[in-house]
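Student: Send me a single protein entry containing the residue sequence and its fold in token form, directly below this note:

Tutor:
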Amino acid sequence: MKLFKKFHLGQWNVHAFEEDGSQDAFIGADMLPIKATEADLICSAPPSKEYEEHMRLQLEALGRIKSWPPREYKEALGQICVNSASLESTMRTLIWAAAGMGSETGMIFTGGKKSTTELGDMLQLVVKQRAPDLEEKLKTLMKEVNKAFENRGIYVHSVWTVGDGGIPLIGKFFSEKTSRNGKLVKLEDLEGLAIGFGDIEGRLSSLVLERFVLGIAPTASLTR
């Protein structure tokens, strides 16, 4: 291994990289090459006070994450994850239906790590080509899809903290520079988003499947 040291949090830290050069892209300009003997000395040295304080704050934040938010909030977050995953899967199926492809062929185009934004763009392109009269209605629905997934990202990937009076808050990723202040989140907001995913999935499915599978013209009620 190629050994380097980097000064961070008041102390030198050792970084090791493969000899074949495959990890050279991760060697920063602020890293200095060292020998194994120096690496051993650095690793055996006691941690700095700055590092200990940093870890104390990190562990404190982790403790808040494990015990917060309340159970009913966690259940609502779980429902958001389940319903959003269902919508994402349905979007793939709708692309196959609109393009007249079976699942095996469809997965070639929609499989892998495509984002919901990419899937939405793909669905709109297919619909624009095969049913241009649905284009505007679908565009309106996709705005709802994108907004729902944006809100999902905020709720699911933010760190939850405890505000004054024990209210649930979401804020930045925890660190020694992160304030305990954050955005208040109501339980009904989470429950509403979970229900919203199911509602959008139903309307999106109806719009696409009734045209491409059943051959029925869309109605205004489907794109309220």
About this structure: The chain has two domains: 2-46, 60-223. Residues 173-180, 220-224 have pLDDT under 50 and may be disordered.
